[in-house]
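A reminder from the course coordinator: this example appears on the midterm review sheet, so study it carefully.

Given structure:
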């Protein structure tokens, strides 16, 4: 008795998958060809092929949707980082004697970065650049305003020592151990330059991830097309008769 003849009906879909994959890759389909030749193997029917095709396409479709969502998130995140870059550029251009001495502007910059971080946490919690943005926020707060309470009585602290839940304002009281830590409501142009460099690196990483996402989507679309073509050609062979379907799988 051949391997296919021994197959339990409950696993017919897996056997079908293997047989069709063998046909697509040019593998030897001897087992499938060892039927008596009077009819197609009992599991190789139009209904089972359609079930296979539907299952396969749904799986690929889910992967494509996930990749497209990741792509959209990366584009949105780059846009958000771009807005912070513009704000830093404007703040740097408005310094006096190379220093911005403005408590309100320091708090606004820190709050805007915090808002972006919160939005990413909620929309794309797996974002690879979240920790870098949190470190940047803490560096800016350490040289800027330090922790503060806003007009709505919300406390804003550091991420590095925070115990707040995701989506809440960080409440850490302890500044980072490295970088400028004076919390004097001033930021120099050289510090703005360092912050700009960090944000450019974050954007570059996001862009690299987006590029890889495009490649992934292209590969999945190609796989989707192949699955459709394979099912279509095999269904055509079935409609043409037993001999053709046996020849197709056996070659």
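Designed residues:
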């Amino acid at each position: 008795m051949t391997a296919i003849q021994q197959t339990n009906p409950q696993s017919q879909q897996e056997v079908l998958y293997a047989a069709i994959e063998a046909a697509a890759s040019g593998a030897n389909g001897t087992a499938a060809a060892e039927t008596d030749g009077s009819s197609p193997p009992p599991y190789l029917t139009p209904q089972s092929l359609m079930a296979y095709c539907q299952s396969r396409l749904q799986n690929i479709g889910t992967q494509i949707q996930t990749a497209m969502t990741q792509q959209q998130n990366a584009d949105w995140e780059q846009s958000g980082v771009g807005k912070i870059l513009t704000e830093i550029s404007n703040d740097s251009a408005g310094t006096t004697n190379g220093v911005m001495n403005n408590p309100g502007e320091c708090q606004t910059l820190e709050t805007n970065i915090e808002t972006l971080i919160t939005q990413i946490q909620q929309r794309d919690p797996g974002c690879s650049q979240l920790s870098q943005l949190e470190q940047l926020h803490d560096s800016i707060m350490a040289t800027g305003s330090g922790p503060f309470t806003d007009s709505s009585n919300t406390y804003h602290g550091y991420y590095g020592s925070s115990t707040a839940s995701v989506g809440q304002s960080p409440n850490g009281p302890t500044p980072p151990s490295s970088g400028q830590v004076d919390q004097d409501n001033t930021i120099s142009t050289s510090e703005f330059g360092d912050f700009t460099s960090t944000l450019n690196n974050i954007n570059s990483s996001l862009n690299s991830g987006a590029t890889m996402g495009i490649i992934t989507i292209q590969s999945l679309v190609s796989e989707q097309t192949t699955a459709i073509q394979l099912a279509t050609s095999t269904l055509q062979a079935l409609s043409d008769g037993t001999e053709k379907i046996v020849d197709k799988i056996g070659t």
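The two ends are 21 Å apart (CA to CA). The chain has a mean pLDDT of 81.
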